[in-house]
Amino acid sequence: SQCPCLQSPDGMKKIPSTKRETAAAFLKKVAKEFGFSSNGFSVYQNRNKTGEIVSQNKTLSLLKIKHGDMLFLFPSGPSTSPGEVMDTVQEDEIDQYLAKQDGKIYRNKDPQLCRHGALGKCVHCVPLEPFDEDYLNHLDPPVKHMSFHAYLRKLTGGADKGKFAALENISCKIKSGCEGHPPWPEGICTKCQPSAITLNRQKYRHVDNIMFENHTIADRFLDFWRKTGSQRMGYLYGRYTEHKDIPLGIRAEVAAIYEPPQNATQNSLELVEDPKAAAVDEIAAKLGLCKVGWIFTDLLSEDTRIGTVHYTRNKDSHYLSAEECITAGYFQNQHANPCRLSRDGHFGSKFVTVVATGGPDNQVHFEGYQVSNQCMALVRDECLLPCKDAPELGYAKESTPEQYVPDVFYKDLSLYYNLTGRYAFVCPQDFHSLATYLSQCTSTAFLDIVSDFHLLLFLVTNEVMPLRDSIGLLLDAVKTSNEDLAQTWKKSEQWATIEQLCGKSPAPLSFQVQWADSLPALWVTGPWVALRFPSPPQPCGPASTVPS
């Protein structure tokens, strides 16, 4: 026998069970032990409400539930009344800031249409709401989808002031604990059956603009493809800021690209386990950065003499493959957007996808994507699969005895949304490669050379002399762009030892940073989202780019 522990709002209890016991039988025991009715609760393997245990005939051993495992029980039904905010949810700083802004679109007096005095207002000059569709459609370029915070203003506006507004996350799973019939596949009812999903265009977007802090960060990311012909993937680190070109808009500013361990070919990418993942996030946090998205190449050289590439992603083929949509959905579910208006404490995601691929002018273009909340739900609940012989196409799974899958319909043939650095270089593998890198920068300011994400990661994680406990001052210098602070750390014993290990004498280090112009705002046309960017300064082939 075994006894998994159930943690609930009312305390913790052990539920006696066996390895061969089915999930359905186990959930009946849970309902009896805690005094719940048929579908009054859900049980998850993780505290963040992932890994739900649904009523099915799979055994606990197949679900990898062992003696002493901690499971988490959450009562079903709204814990708050509609429109009531959950004050315990810590929203992102940008969301807290935008929630306090007025958001209205102010207009000047029209000299031809306005017939009132300087202090008066009329229909031709009264401020507009941030979700005004006519205003958004007349911007250049037109914005077909309002910002997420404009959508929230629309929900919480009107006479009832959002009293009945609530953001509900989509679920494609059978509700657990229903006792009026045998568990699926022997039985199902309207109380526990998930609703059918009709794919339609999302009215809002969580991110309105993406910008790289400078062209170097993207240019160096492309170097791997230029040198090997193989595709490449990286995580985008940066911050979310206000995008002032769109009412209550959000911009993802990319400051660094971290390239994790991966197996790459000309046509595929496979992520492998990254032992440095925790250290990367720790360094990023100390620099004031967070993971805002991921980027991959899909490039095929056309003419190496002039640096052109093939234009493969277009309306006649695809903009984003099903495999890539599923991967984007997976990442977005991992980085859910904290939201007080959802009783789950999260809604949607601000995690973006960027693709470096050939454009219509046969130059490298950066295109970005973000899948809709509907796609996120289909991916999270394992309902969406790519076609084996055509990975750009996908399909919804059929129901099986192990899993019920709701019907999925669509209204539009177009399933895509179209939207609109400083620390980057090839990560040193040893002190010899670090010495080579430093020798190439003999006339640069020290702060500029250490403002490199992969360099900082090497200093923290190298096996000869890891500086995890003594690099705090340097990280503060990079975060605040403080040259004096960087020079103070440069005089430390740690840096002197690093220089000795590199076999080089101290020398000033620097390179010139060129700042990129702002990139255009995103615009949208379907349940999946795509950001459009202009070509980067350097010309840089196709990939079925999905982590395994």
From TrEMBL:
Q: Which GO terms describe its molecular function?
A: ubiquitin binding; ubiquitin protein ligase binding; zinc ion binding
Q: InterPro entries per the record?
A: MPN (IPR037518), Npl4 (IPR016563), NPL4_C (IPR007717), Npl4_Ub-like_dom (IPR024682), NPL4_Zn-bd_put (IPR007716)
**A GO-annotated cellular component:** nucleus
> What pathway is it annotated to?
Protein degradation; proteasomal ubiquitin-dependent pathway
Q: Which domain of life is it from?
A: Eukaryota
Q: Which keywords does this Swiss-Prot/TrEMBL entry list?
A: Metal-binding, Zinc, Zinc-finger
- Where do the MPN domain residues begin and end? 210-347
Q: Which PROSITE patterns match?
A: MPN
Is Zinc-finger included in the keywords of this UniProt record?
yes
> GO biological process: what's one of them?
ubiquitin-dependent protein catabolic process
Q: Which family would the database say this protein is a member of? A: Belongs to the NPL4 family.
What protein does this entry describe? Nuclear protein localization protein 4 homolog
Which source organism?
A: Mastacembelus armatus
User: What taxonomic lineage is listed for the species of origin?
Assistant: Eukaryota, Metazoa, Chordata, Craniata, Vertebrata
